[in-house]
Amino acid sequence: MAGTGPVRWGIIGTARIARTAFLPGLRRAGGVAAAVAGRDQERAELFAQENGVERAIAGYQRLIDDPAVDALYIPLPNALHAEWTISALRAGKPVLCEKPLCVTLAETERVLAVAEETGTLLWEAFVFPFRDQFSRLTGLLAGGAIGELREIQSSFHFQLSRGDDIRLSSELGGGALNDVGCYPVRLALELFGAGFLSAWAAADFGGQDVDVETAGSLGFDGGRRLLLSCGLRRSYDTFTRLLGTTGQIHLTNPFHPGPADRLEVLAAGAEARSYQAAGDEPSFTAAIAHIEAVLRGEEAPRQLATQTSLAPARALHDLHASMAAG
Question: Quick check: 1 pLDDT over 70?
Answer without folding.
Answer: no
